[in-house]
Structure formats: structure tokens, C-alpha cells
Amino acid sequence: MGSTRARIAIDAMGGDFAPSEIVVGALRAREELDVEVLLVGDVPQIEAILNQHTSSHNIEIVPSEGTIEMHEEPLSGLKRKPKASINVAMDLVKQKRADAVVSAGHSGAAMAAALLRLGRLPGIDRPAIGAVFPTMIAGKPVLILDVGANVDSRPKFLDQFAVMGSVYSRYVLDVENPKVGLLNIGEEECKGNDMAIRAHQLLKENPKINFVGNAEGRDVLSGNFDVIVCDGFVGNVLLKFAEAVGEVMLNIVKEELPQGLNGMLGTAILKPNLKRIKQRMDHAEHGGGLLLGVAGICIISHGSSQAPSIFNAIRLAKEAVDHQVLERISSQYQKTAAQAADGE
Question: Do the beta carbons of residue 146 and residue 231 sit within 8 Å?
């Protein structure tokens, strides 16, 4: 692609605050993260926003026509609108013009477009959306997957999620030997429904991961696990509940600060601490979820994403590209296939 810098295709028309907040977040990422951005969308709208914020942007705009609306069924919407922004963005990755896609639009459409345009990685039956959560231990996040790609999952899907999550945790989050847990209603192997019991057995027997057992709901943010796997229905509920709790806690902190002059003085003294609290708890600081298992880097951001969240989503994409997450996941399954062939 003529450059060693990551090139990120941005779905500029996807999200509640598109295209303005998307473009502003992309501009900041270009300046601070040393990445190239390709803005996909309505050219006149994007150019108008760029001109409001910079006199010389030199950013490539890739034209598209329309978006997949939130009320539309993903597959039918993608077929009816082949030049929709998410389709065009995925095609840029397929054509090797970009290394990754970031979208805050229709998450189902983004996942469907990734599968249709890019396909799955060899050895992966279903992709999963991974989300990074803060824990009680500063600087020690936990990766939860799946948080929405698969409402119904089979045990072998969770086994694959664990492998992909371990790769991401090891090479992007810099955890030497990630501890993997299975989200369940109890610590004992016999707990849970049939899928959880069978998944536990597969995870325990998988030599590619460091499986340490079941994780109850109260363990998710404890810092005792680096990767936790679950089906997308439970994971999505967990994700949205955690986001709500984070917002509630931030609001409580603001409300409980003293009022008046004392409050102003106290806030000034506590400002560095409050900033760190926000960074650990605010979901906007994490940018979105990485769609693991497709043959391309794809970050699915919150529909309500504003510029800071888009900036962080681009950062996530860059980290995945720089750390060769796709290649490392593929390598795990190529080794397995080679070992199986040798054993025949």
C-alpha cells in the first residue's frame, strides 16, 4: 500500500452524530496517532466539516451513497444499497487500500458486511465482538467476548472465542499468559446449562489457552481474569449494564462533590484524580469492540459515539494492525491443521 503507517477506512456516515463527530475524531487520530484515514461517505458534507476544522487537511474522501438505517434488516439493506458507506469501507479493506474499518453505524450491518466482503478466517466458525472492560486493578483490563455478534452460540464457538481473545490479550494488551474464564452461574464445573458444561470441557482440554475455570458475574471486573467468554446475548446485556453503571458512578461522583467555593477548590484539587476515574470508567475511552474472526480488522463503535470515542476506536484499529492480530489468530489454526495432518 506504499506506506508503513496503518490506513484506516472510516464509515463517516454511520452513527447518531455522523458525519460531524466522526470526521472530527478522525482528524484528531490522524494528527496524534500517525495513521492515514480514508473518510467514506457523502463528499460535500465531509468536505464542509473538514473545512470548518482545518485549512489544509489532505485527507482522502471515498464517495458512497446512503447508509444502512437502524430499522433496516442488515442483509437486505446491504443488498439494496451496494454503495452504502459500510459496504464501500469494507471493500477498501478487501482491495488492500485500507488495513481496517471503523464504523459507529448499524452494528448488525457492519458485521454482515464484514462477513460478506471479507469472509471468515480459516478455522473460525463464527466471529465475535470483543470489548475491553476496566477492572478493580488499575491498568489491568479484561476482554469480554462475545458481546453481541452471536445471540446463540455453540460450545465450539466459545472455544474459538477463547483462542482469539487470548491472542488479542497477549499481543495487544500485553498479557504474557492470559487467564481465560467462562462466564457462568457458579465456579464448579457442573454449574450452568448444557452449553456451559460442554464449553467448560472444551476449554479445559484446549492446549492453546490458559483456562482457569468459570467466572461468576461478580468476578468479571475483579481483575482475576484477562479474557472471559460467553454467548453474545449474555455478553451484550453485560456490556450495556456495565456502561450504565459507569455513567451512574461518574454522575454520583459529580453530584457528591461539595457545592460553592469549597466545591470549586475541592474539584480543582481532585481534578487529576477525577480525570483518571473517567478514563477507567467511561466507555467512550475504549472506543468500541473489535470484530474478531473475520479476514480484516473491523472496529464496531457505539451508535452514540462522538469524536473522543471515534478517536479511541481508530486507536484500537491501529493497535490491532500494528500487532498483526489477524496473522497471529490464523497462525494458531494453521498450526492445529498441520498437527492434525501429521497425526493422520
Answer: yes
User: What are φ and ψ of residue 239, in 5° steps?
Assistant: -60, -50
pTM summary value: 0.85
pLDDT in tens, 171-217: 999 999 999 999 999 999 889 999 999 999 999 999 999 999 999 99
Residue that is written with C-alpha cell 450491518 in the block? 109
- Distance in angstroms (rounded) separating the CA atoms of residues 257 and 260: 10
Q: What residues contact 115, with CB distance under 8 A and at least 6 apart?
A: 127, 294
Distance CA 48, CA 27 (A): 13
Residue written as cell 493422520? 344
Report the C-alpha gap between 338 and 196 in whole angstroms: 29
Q: Which residues of 112-136 are buried (b: 16+ CB within 10 A; e: fewer)?
A: bbbbbbbeebebbebbbbbbbbbbe
Q: Which set of grid coordinates corresponds to residue 80?
A: 439494496
Distance CA 338, CA 332 (A): 10
Residue 157 grid cell: 464457538
Per cent of the chain over pLDDT 90 is 68
Alpha carbons within 13 A on the beta-carbon side of 54: 14
How far apart are the C-alpha atoms of 342 and 270, rounded to whole Å?
Answer: 61
Cell digits of residue 199: 464449553
